[in-house]
Amino acid sequence: MRYLVVIILFVSIVVNAVGEKFFNQVIIVNIMLAIKNVELLIDDINQSNSTRIKMQFGNLVSSWKKVETTYLLGDLNEDYLDIPRYIDIFHGNNEDIKPQLDLIINSNDELFNAMYKYSHKTINALEYILFTKDLFHPRVKNMALIIAKSIKNYLLEILDGYKMYQSKFLESEQYASAILLNTLIAGTYKLKEWRVGDVAGLSKKFKNKPNNYRAEYATSGNSVNAIKAILETQVQVINSPDYQDFGDISRQFKARKEIDQAISALNDSIANANNMSEFDFINDKGKLLYQSTNRLMKAYYISLMDKLGFVSKVLDADGD
Amino acid sequence: MTIQKKLMISFGLTVVMIISAASVFLSRDEINPLLITYANIATVNYMDALNDAKKLGTKLKDFTNNPTIETMGNAKAAWLNARESYGQTEAFRLSNGPIDVEEGWHTSYGAPEGRLNAWPLDENMIDYITNSKGRKTSGNIIDTPGMFNPGGENPLLIDVSIITSDVLAALNGNGGYANVATGYHVIEFLLWGQDQDYANFIKDNVTHGALLAGQRALTDYTINANADRRKQYLNAAVSLIIADLESITSAWADGDSTNYKAALLGKNSDVTKNINAKVALKQIFSGLGIFIKSELANERIAIAVLTPSEEDEHSCFSDNTHRDITQNFQGFKNLLFGTYNSFDYGVALIDAMKDKTKLMGLIASVNTKINQMNTLAQVSRHFDYQIRPNDSQARQIKKLKNELRAIGDQMIYVAKSNGIDLTVGNIMDVGEIKL
User: Fold this and answer.
1) Which residue among A4, A178, A313 sits closest to B423, beta carbon to beta carbon?
2) Which of residues 84-113 of A touch B (CB under 8 A)?
3) pLDDT 10s digits, B289-321
4) What was the ipTM of the complex prediction?
5) Which residues pair with A53 in a beta bridge?
6) Closest by alpha carbon to B306, among A191, A193, A122?
7) Given an 8 Å threshold on Cβ–Cβ distance, is B307 in contact with A118?
8) Integer Cα distance of A138 and B286 in angstroms
9) Cα A184 to chain center, whole Å?
10) Which residues of B touch A113 (CB under 8 A)?
11) End-to-end alpha-carbon separation of chain B, Å?
């Protein structure tokens, strides 16, 4: 099968970048929200309150997706490049962690040693434990706490990193604009192709093989919730009334039509996601969401990028 | 190399650079000096690899004729030695050359990379292991003296009554990429045996020690019921390695106007086989970029340290991964600087680059980290201990991975200095494992 590989070479861009307000009101606020949500989840697990645990897990999913949607800390310092994969392994790991977690639950090994893989302590592992296992079992509860605390520690590390490298983001407008737009493009591709297309049977990999259980959070029913969070974060980036955002920058530099197209596709995507339940990926609603997110991706990487002075090349490359 | 292909969206940030392309494209009759340097290093490096493989063959024969602790140790030493020269040749991969080319006339050399160096392997297919439940496995090539089903997708049944090179070649990849039956790592497994605890490598219940590799018992080659079949396997496997390296060595041999080296230099007597110098250089730069970034940094280091996974360290049975990394990077440097074994082979790929500051800084930093990794592997803990999450070296090895990726990106600028345009897409393997 063939895939498109997008090669984007940022040659020059002469625009005013999004600034401190954006950084503080989006990047920092979102990571702090995620930390708060995981702390609340830890409290709920300690209290074994299953109703609150499941609700709070949904809140953590939502806030983590917001952090992930604008994760550019690895561009500011490569030491932070790999942190997201310690929190989240969706579509980024060939392991099937479910039997591994079952093995850990059923063994007598110290959890510190048994849960040595990073994948054992991700949000994906936490979902499996919280939604399929008995939390009144002490070992299961301890595993859930270990995972949640690990996620919290990595989120704190991200917050510290952003604070430490905020000046690097702000000091170069060109650099900030480039990494932000690239993050949007990469994230939108993953949204369209992995989170919707693979499930709806519309991606090249799973053409005509729809399966709702392929969704990102099929076990807990938080897949649409995650998609909404991703789209809401994109609104924060390109269409906020509260601070100069990427949309404002685009208009200043004569890309009004292009950014309006992106905002239109984003609004359509949000409306389509709001109209969906967890089981709608495989019907017309899933198809509509795929189409609107596809328009959003094209608006970013074809129209907007070219207009802002980016040069993009689209190569046909081998893929799965 | 994974068969799973993934789309990658990537980008490169470039500054406006003024680079004067060197005059590396000469008149029709002159041979491009960069290609001469590259080809001559290939000639001697593959010859060394072949000679070292032959020495390995001799020591394996000594061992199987007279299995003792001493002859087994000699065979292991010969294997380690053979990996030193072969490890450097790996920089020739992914450049559309005879070692792994997928189309064109030079596939006639057999493109044997997948037979020589395939990994990770499903060692359970070859010989017994102690599995994650603590049980010794069976139903492998060694203990099946008859028709063998390798499993996987659409496998062909193979008669393994006598284990020969042809039998192993027929088994290799039969049923899927994990069904590795040939190459250095198969011999490694048959000499050292399992190193890890398949239930949990942190516990290390199999070999019990930071400086212990696999501890296969000599009795596997003396009193064990399948001792003779293991001997057959070792000798057949090394024969295949030698045959494959002889083929590749012939591709790079001097004085042959019909081989690949002649074609690369535009001097093949069959002019239709000659490779345009610009095309050749683009393939070389691209191959080096993919090798350093996707193969070495990603497939061989990142997967191991980011999982973490002992199964994904390259020489996991002998604990020789630190040398794999060292020699792979040395092979890359050989070609970049136009040297081999400290001998200068002429005009180098890096020579035309005006501002080498960033690249040389990265290389120096990588050298430091690799030296540290080697020292620790010798005195305190092997690579599989260094990648443990709570080991201070894990962070250093992640940095090493990131710096190797940055060196891969630099190949765009090295190529540009030599008049070759590369994009980020040219230096990434789209099949690399997504992390």
Assistant:
1) A313
2) 85, 91-92, 94-95, 103, 107, 109, 113
3) 999 999 999 999 999 999 999 988 999 999 999
4) 0.82
5) none
6) A122
7) yes
8) 54
9) 10
10) 200, 202-203
11) 14
